[in-house]
Structure formats: C-alpha cells, structure tokens
Give the backbone structure.
Amino acid sequence: MFGIVLLIFTLNLSNADCLIEKDSTVITQTQKGNVETYRFLKIKILTERGRDFCGDIKIRYDRKASRFKILKAYTLLPDGKKVKVEKDAIMDVGAPETAIAPQYTTRIIKAVSFPALKENAEIVYEYVIKSRKPSKEPLFGTSLFRARNPIAKKILILNIPESRNLKYRKVNSGNITIKIDTTKPYLRYIFESENVEKLPDEEFTPPLMDIVPRIDYTEFNDESEMAEWLFEKFKDKIETGKKIEELAKTLKGEDEISTFYRVMEYVQEKIQSINLYLWDAGFVPHSATWVLKHRYGDVRDKAVLALSLLKTLGIKAEPLIVEVQGVQYSATVGLSSVLSEKSLELPVPSLYKTMIIRAILKDTVLYAPLMEKYSDITFIPADIQGKRAFSFWEGNGSYLLIPVLSPQSSELYAYLKGNIGDDGSFTGSWQIEGTGMYSGRLRSRFRFKKDKEIKVMLENLIKVFGQTAKLDSYRLSNMDSRWESPSLLIFISSKDFANINGNLEFTIPILPFSTRYATRSKRELPLYIGAPRKVIYSSEISVPVDFSPFILPDSVKRDNKYNTLISRITYKNHRVKFNSEYTTNKIQIPVNDYAKFREVEGLFFSKNERSVILSK
Amino acid sequence: MRRLIGIILALVFTGCATSRKALLKALSVKEPQSANAIVIFDSTFVNVKKTGSYVKRHHVLVKILTMKGKADYASPSFTYTTKYGKVVVKKARVIKKNGKIVKVKKDNIKDVKVPAFDKFFLPNVRMVKIVFPDVEKGDAVEYVVEEIISNPPMEGEFDDMVIFESTEPVLSQYYEIALPQRLYYRIYNDKDGIIKFRHEGEKYVWYVNDIEPLIREPLMPPLPDVAKKVLLSTVKSWKTWSRWYWNLTKDKFALNDTITSLMDSLLKDKPTRLDSIKSLFYYVSNNIRYVATTMNGKKAGYEPFPATKTFRQKYGVCRDKAALLVAMLRHIGVDAYPVLTNPMIKVEKEIKTDQFNHAIVAIKDKKGYIYLDPTAEDIPVFLPFYEQGKGVLVCTPEGEDLSYTPILPPDSNSAYSTQEIYVLEDGNMKGKSVIKGSIVDQQFRMMVKKIPPERLKSIFSMSLQALGNEASLDTIYYTDPDDFNTPFSITMEYSVKGFAIKKDKKLAFSLNSEQSNMFGGNPFSLKKRNYPLYLFVPTSTRSKLVIHIPEGYNIKSMPNSVNLENNYVAFGINTKSKVDSIVLSYNVTYKKCLIPPEDYPQTKTLYDRWVKNIKTRFILEKQ
C-alpha cells in the first residue's frame, strides 16, 4: 500500500481525470489448453470528468466460448467505506459488432456501472474469464502499458505450461521490467511497469498501438508456424465449382491486370460488406460458394471468394493480413511501429485487423482491398499504405510492407475559370477531379446521392464564391465506374464574389472541406496525416479592364521533407492567374519537425496568399 | 400506375399470398432516377384489444436499386423491451429479379441484446435483425414482422405516431388499426392532402401513394416536426397521461436519514427558498452522473428508481435524477412534480400520444410552473436554453394539460465578446478576446468541465486558424466553472502570423466574422428552402472589437456601418476610426426560432448584404 502511495506522489497527475492505481492481469493456460484471464483493477477518480469517463467498465467476451465471473466490484469511498455494485448495475449487453452482424458473432459486453463515485473515490474491480472448453489454439495477444490516464502500476503475468514455448517482444519505448519465474508447473512471465505518465490528449495522433509501450506475446515458434496455422483455416474454403466458374467467365478481362481488377471490383461491389475486424467472428472463413450464395461477407469471406475467382481465371494471387488500427468501434489491437526491424518480428495474428489481395503477375505486383467502394479501382487505400502485412499462402510465412504510393497517386485538381463583372459579380466554372484518395473522397460525397441532395450540397459548397453564389448547373462523371477518376464540373454565378469599394477585392477560393492538421502550435506526439497526396489549384479569372494590381501576394516556394508548397498569383492582360501545388510526402510528422510542416500548411490554407486587391 | 397500385394493395391485404406473377408485376415499377431503393409498399396492421395489448404487423416490400439501397434495406432491425412484449419475424424472403423466391433461413434472423452505446447499457432491450441473403441490384426484399405487446405501458390504451415520408421513394404506404376503444387522430404537415383516410366501425385506415423522397436541408427542423404524419391515441386527455406518470413515480419519493442529513448540510445558511432550491438542484445535477442501466420495474423505461437508490448509487438517467430532485424538494415543502418532455421534437398538443423522451422537474408557484432539468450538468440556470419552447407535461395527482416552456427573448440567449487586437507592421497580429453571455455561460461552462484541458485548448486553437497563416493560442483562462453565482467568461490571448498581407507600404486584412447563428453552419446557404430554417432559440451575438493599427499608418479602406433588420433578424456593424485604432461593434440577432420558407428569401437578402459589407478588407497605408 505504501508503495502505491509513494508512486502516486512521483506521478504527474496534472490534467489527469483518473489514476489507474493498479491494473493487473494474469493469463493462465492449463496443460489441456484451457485459458483463464484474471484481472484486478483499482482506479482512483480525480475529477468530475474522471467520474464520467472511468465510472463504467466494459469488457468484451464471447459468452458461448467462456464464462465471466465477477469476484469483486465495489467503490471505496475516501472515508474507507465500501459501496457494492448492485445486481442491476452488472449487465450483459450487446457488443457493437453484434449489431452489425449478429449472424457472425456471439460476443457480448459485460458492463459494470460503479456506484457512489466522486473525487478521490476508488473503483475496485476483480473478475475472471474462463474458457468453457480446452483449445489446441496457440495463445497470443498484446498488452498496452500506457493509457489516456496515468498508471501507477501495470502488471501482466502469463502462466504458461513448461511444455509450451512462449515468445514475447517489447514494442515502443517505455520502462517495462520483465521477469521469468521457472517455478513448476508453469513458466511465469512477469511484465511490470510503474509510474507511467498519461498520454497527451492530441488530435491526429498515430494509432495508440504505434506509440505506447506494449508487450506482444505468442506461442507460435516462427512465421512458418503461423502461416501454416492460417493457411489451414483458409485452404479448404477456396472453391472452383460450377457457379464460381460461371461467374469467373463473366469477369475475364482483356489481360491479367484488368481481370484481376474486375474480380476485385465484383467482390467489393456485389458482395455486401460486413464491417467486422478480421478475427471478430473467429478464424475460419466461410467457403467461396457460401459467400457467393449469400452475397455478403466479412473481409475473410470476401478474400476467399476473390481467391477462388482468381484461381479459376489462372491468376496467381494470395491474401495478406494487414496491421491497421480500427476506427469502427474500440479496437484492442492495432499497428506495430517496428516495421522494418527483422529481429523484432513476432507472429501474433491478433495484430492484423484486415486483409487485402496481392496478385503477382509477370511484370507487376498488384494490391487490392476487399471492402472499398469509393476509391479508384487500382488505388491502395490510404489507411493500408505503408502498413505491415503478413503473407501466409501455401503455409509460407513472410512479413512485408504494403507500398506507400507517391503523392501523385492521390491528386486533387481544381481548375477555376471565370469573369468578374464591373459590379464584382462572377460567372464561371469549377472543374474538380480526384485520383487515388481524392477519388474516394469525391465519390463518398456524391455517389448514391439524389440530384436534389447533390444540389443542396453544392449550394453550400459554392458559398466560397460569395453569399449570393448560385449553382447554375453541375455535371458529375465516373461516380459509379471506378475505372476512371471521378470529376465534378460546376457552373456558378455570384453577385458578391468581389467587393468593389473603390478597390476591387476578391479571394480565390479553395475547396472548403480540406482538413487542416497542424492547428496546435506545439505537439508532444507525432502528427499522423495518412497517405501522401497532392492538391493542385489552377485559376484563371478575367477582371474589368479599368482595374490594375494594388496588392498581390508574393509568390511562395517552401520545401521540406514533409510538405511542399509552390504558389503564384500573376496579373496580365486583365487576367489574374493563380497556380498552387501543395504536396504532403509523408504519412507521419515527427514532433521535432512539426513546426516546419505547420508553416507550410499554414501558407497553403492562408486566405492572404490567395487574396487579390486591384485598384483603378 | 393506378393498376399497379391496385396490385400492390392486393399484395398488402393478402400478405403476399398472391401469385408470383402479381408480385413480379408490382416489382416491374419504373425505377426513379438516382433512387437507391423503392419502397413498393410499407403496410402496418394493428389489432388492439381492450386491455391495450396489441399485435402490430408490419409488411414491407422494397426493390433494391443500388448497393447503398441494399445496405439500407437488406438488413432491417427491430428493437423491443422484454418487459412489454416481443418481436417475431413471420416471413422474410428475397424475390430475385428473375422471379425466384429465396426464403430467409433461421440462421439469418437473430434476436440479440441491443449493443451498448455511449452511457446506455440496456440488458432488457433486445433487437431482432434480419439479414437478407443473395440480394442483387433489381431484387426485392420482403418481410412480415409482428410486434406483440402483451403488457402495454398504459393499460387499456394505445397510441402511435406514423410518419408517411422516407428518404427513398415510396409507392404505397398503408396503416390500418382496429380497436374497440374510441380513437382520436389527426394528420399533420400535409397541406396538399396526400394522406387519405377512411373509417368503418372499429377500423381506421390512412394511406398514401407515390411519395417523393424527402430531401434534407441544412438547419431544418427535426424530421417528425415537418414530415407528413398521423398521430393517434385512445387517450382522451393529457390529464390521463399526467396522472398515470404521477402514479408511477409517487412511491419513489421516500427519503432516508442519509439523504436528509446531507440535505441539512446543503441547506445550512441558505436564507431564501430560492437558495435552497438552487442548492438541491445543483447537487442532483452535478453529483448524480448520467448512466442508463437495467430498466426498472413493470413500466421499464418510464419508471424511475426510488430516490434512495439513485442517491446511493449516485447515478441514473433523466427520470431517476428528476425523481430524486422532486423527492428532495417535496421534503423541504416545495410543491415539486416530475415532468415529461422532449427536447428534440415538437410535442403536438391535439392528440395525446406519448411523444416524450425526457423527464425533468416542475415547481409550482403562484404564477405557474418553474421548470428544472437536473440532467443538464454544469449550468447556472434551471433549464438549458435548448429546452425553451418545448412541450411539457407536469405529472400531478389531479392531472395537468400539456403546456410549453417559455421561449426567452434573444438577449436572454446571448453571447458577448470583446476583442482587442494589435496589427503589427510585419503583418502579424496579437490579440485578446473575452467571451461571455448567457449561452456561453451554459455551453462553455459545460465544455470546460467535460472536455480535457489539452483538447479544449486544441478546439479553441482551431477556431483561430482562419485568421492567418499560423495562429497560436498563447493562453486561455476562465472563471471558476463551479461558481454558479458569477457569470462565466473565457479569455484567450493569441498571436497570428500572416494576419495581414504586407506589400510595399500597405497592410491589408479582413476579419473572419461571417457570423452565422451560434450553432454552426451558414444558415443562409440555400437560395430557397422547402422547410423552415430552424435556429433552435432566439439568440443575440454582440461583439466589440478594437483594432490597434501600427504607428504611421492611415486607414485607406474599411467596412461601412450598416444596420439591417426585419421580423426575424437584425444584423448590424458600426465602424469608427480613430487616430491609432478602429472600433467596430457587431450585432447578429435571430429573433425567432423558425424562419418559414416563404419569408426565407427576403431574410436571406439581408444576410447576404450584411456579409458582403463585412467582407470588405481593411487597408492601411504608411504615410
């Protein structure tokens, strides 16, 4: 007890809402293969926010496969009095994934709402989850050692039978002490961390798994063993029966590349996506025939159908499991940051949350997602680029990185052409085209929308041309076909584009939905911005003949490793031309280089760099 | 089309027992452009018994036109509360475009607990979900689902709200109810008389054909306030509802010694009745956290926990918090009652249906009722601004009629800011803003309590970014959010790089002050509207801004003073130049909660003129 008090004194609790005084987990695997997870949690409430954030504890478990028993659940008041959790505050409720796909999963959430919470009250919670049946499956998993609230003591103990071989690794910097106790009949692996500061609360941070110290553990000996284990689950599900053959025939393209993408398009578009993470519904997928018959599937099912069709068509392809951080609902596992350090590789299936298909053709290697429906067909989704993947086909295991595409693969191009009248009014057109990531963004806004809905959206969007801006007409191209990049052409007229107040003043518009990442002046965590991309604005605006430049911004050229801006406004023959190219080159910006990135991003978004003032 | 409607109605009545040919004929309907699905029919048959128990049979046939249509319609779910009844799927099938019928197997129909969401953990609420297999573009999904209610919330009574519009086109929608009780009903929002009605004996029918999809507009009222709908109820008077809820709650108001001794300490040195009421209100509001756990009692979802239990657990939902506050207030002799309300939608008065989703408290005084919402945490007033003008039913032993909370004038829903900025010769700027006002007092006080400080700083920092290339929030501080006796204010000090364009001897800048309403969004983005512009409550925003200009610079250009006003809005800007500074004052007032579509264009014209004026750049030139 004294030890904990001492630790609390050395922890910085400013801005903390709760203090995790102790979070201790003991996972015991029996000789037969039963698994028992025991956990003890003690959390001190420091603020009213903490009372709200930490007052309800939700633990996900599979009721069919395991039993959940609460050993202790009470609130310890500052005066030492205990207030027990009442029966009706211990609840079995559905897990979010059950609402998405109840036919796939039986997982539920054990929720406990703790009573009498106030500042300095402590939550004490102790439970055990025991598997109902022994399992031959190897044990594996991940435990995080830093959180959004400070942790005084975190312990993970793995009790593994001597006969089993457990491997582990420590990922990301942070003090975790490791001890191995060989007292029979178990090998006892003890991982401990003390006095862990809270994680800063910043926006656009890399996935938690990427930045907090963690322990990954596994009973797989090596990547071959994991590959074999995975392949066993998938291999019999690949089928080439009559129905698959009939369908495959209709998908054959002019060459291998087009055939590959036609198959992927079919699987993406015609099979309804069940948005579960990779292993949410267990490890074994449905068969290809089943998926085709039902016309829906999770990522594993879609992979099975895609591989069956590709096999039938003679295209050499394989599934990859990919480490991505989840966003659909709270994920417990995610991305590793030790991407290229071979020595740190560890076969842990639960780190992988999605699948994609890789085709190895004569001259080229192609990657295609399974759940996409908006991006161009050949694009590797932004959230998958640069991620670590594992190839397990035919039982041969190997780690690889999904390529990071160049900024040119995700271009947003906006060309504005128009005239400003003597009264400051504007008539003109705006042509917007998007490739790669931007093709997805354009389609997600406009695909499946009704004409009237699109008009409401566009009327709002064109307010960058003035409050009176009117949508004269619009044209959308390639919204349903993902083989060519989508484009939007808008014809606009506005009475108040330019202000005439002695001078003629206007701001060249940019699309109002671009994300500005570097809003805070300093960061403690890296800034995560996703796939490299390029935004090109080109404008040509005729102005009344009796005006000439009064104030035009200087040209801008800024360049660093992370982002680049080249921007220029010129006036010639009563025309104002604006050209701007903004490129982001990296997925993530380190803390030390954040200021450089922020400066360039600030110039790109600055209205002043696009402002024109002309005088008579 | 008339023939097609006839076929559809035949299908509706026969519950799809008709021939496949008829079904295919119904599905041969012309596909509307850009629709994702078309609802061929959506029919509901309700059979109510004298006890109020009922069976509601829902029969739907939808043709799927796109993958989005499939995602929207091919996995419907139906929730129910186990205390009242159940939901049973009687039929579910896919009709392939070639006429083949695929019956949905049991594996694809699941009855599961509803998932936890936010602070709602409801183990006695379940969800039946049908996942239709093998659905392709051009196929149709059809289901018959029965909601069987054996223990209705109010014995012997029935009520319902039926919306006759959808985001996809509907070819035919039909609602039929048969019941022995007298039924009160009314059609709303149907100027064109599209909803047809007939009544024979115990049977009442409403139906529509060929309904265009509803297109949402920004800042429109909630859907039930504007969509075509029918309200129906067997309950004759609001007093019946009022007495019913009073009887559900009256036994929950008993207190124990622990509560009364806490109350003694809270009420010590509280000289007036109002001070005592405030003290108890703040206690319940801020010390009982909001969590929904297992729904209590026979009338789950309505019945609160006993006050002693809520006090002991220090958590509860609105009805639990309201019951505890009523209990405490009644204990000190205040005439307090629970109140049913709905902060989201308009509660229609004429038909006495249960349109409530929230419980608050009323205190009876000489002039009428004062309303208090103890669910709203960290506010210095009894009722949050968003509950102005909402339907309230005070629940008393004698019964009360439905009334509405008062709508306060714009100045009582205000935000005031004073800003002082120093434009520097290099084009950068330093500034300080102080924000206060009654809405700020509620919204920002709650924000600083609920949002972690680092995140809060980030939110305010984000709001400054449009001022220039790089805006830094140097410091942010605020008055004590727990001191409800002192008006709350927030002060920000910031610096902005690239605030003004610097060129030769000139500095040019504009202010990011295209102020809309206080709730975000440009309220006048659309040229015309089909639905009213919904601004929640009347509001007033006033700003005073002093711009200090660098020494040696003259003002060459700046916005003119202008004041524009009509029955709905007032927009004003007054500018005054001094030797070394410019003083501006802004006023944006929305006088009403709603601007109807017919008055929208004229009001928009005022807004457009105002925005055009404030967009004018300030241009300074060095002598």
Summary: Chain B has a mean pLDDT of 93. The first strand of chain B starts at residue 37 and ends at 48.
